[in-house]
Amino acid sequence: MKAHLHTSWRHIPDEARGMAAALGNFDGVHLGHAHLLHTLHTARPDLGLAVVTFEPHPRELFRPQDPPFRLTLAEERLAALSALGVRHVFQIPFDAAFSAMTAERFVTGVLDEGLGLKHVACGADFAFGHRRGGNAAFLAERAEELGIGMTTVPALADKGGPYSSTRIRRLLQDGYPERAAEELGRPWAIRGVVQHGDKRGRLLGFPTANVPLGRHLEPARGVYAVTVRLPGGQAWPGVANIGRRPTINDGQESRLEVHLLDFEGDLYGQTLSVALHTLLREERRFDGLDALKAQIAEDAATARTYLDRLAWAGA
């Protein structure tokens, strides 16, 4: 069941108050986040499970010059949290005014008075308030005074260290979507609206849907075996290129171009979710369009074989 989304901490309906809420950015909604939510639910199974998060990510406000880095945008995050049993998502607009709010005001005004939370949970490194003036210890102290329960959850870790969004971003940038999927608990996907391109793929015999990366992290450039989820929920095998297409132009903007295997239909204007399974090859330049066309055919065949094996293994 899809979680109820609240895009303000003010005027929360009575049925959404009195929750047990996990606090954080939840970018990627990975296994570490799932561990946080499971621990919270185990501590207070009598309360509805909720999340308090922020949009945009604070880093997008404070460092707008940084390259895009998001693993999940708001809609994807909501879907992933819903799948983990979250009933309410309090998505607080993170703007300049909110960033100036003191830690004290965040606890008393937002968590207590605004949302009416009964219990909160966070990681040991959670920091909040103006200039990160509050931490888990401060939150525990003030929560106790306000009659709010508090659980500080140690990070889920393996031999490589704690699970983190940063670690998953690095795996994707290094070309390891399979390992990123293990830490996310699902394949990493880029969701976006199909835009008109230059129709070059159609001329090459492989029509593609062009999905802008937007605020998503740019993973390693190259060709991937993918699964495309259509608006109606149907999953379709495909092969995708992420990069700047060095053979046919030197465009400065990276893009995702996905060819759906054996698909016929018009996808313009529709929202697709493109899940990356494996990097088949890195981006490279070819001598001409004939060589590129031959390579695309080979890529499509390789992707088909890989995805058939994947489907068989999961059967």
UniProtKB/TrEMBL annotation:
Sample GO molecular function, one term: ATP binding
All residue ranges annotated as the Riboflavin kinase domain in the record: 183-308
EC number: 2.7.1.26, 2.7.7.2
A Pfam family it matches: FAD_syn
SUPFAM superfamilies, alphabetized: Nucleotidylyl transferase, Riboflavin kinase-like
Family membership noted in the UniProt record: Belongs to the ribF family.
Role according to the record: Catalyzes the phosphorylation of riboflavin to FMN followed by the adenylation of FMN to FAD.
Name this polypeptide is given: Riboflavin biosynthesis protein
UniProt organism field: Gluconacetobacter takamatsuzukensis
Lineage: Bacteria, Pseudomonadati, Pseudomonadota, Alphaproteobacteria, Acetobacterales
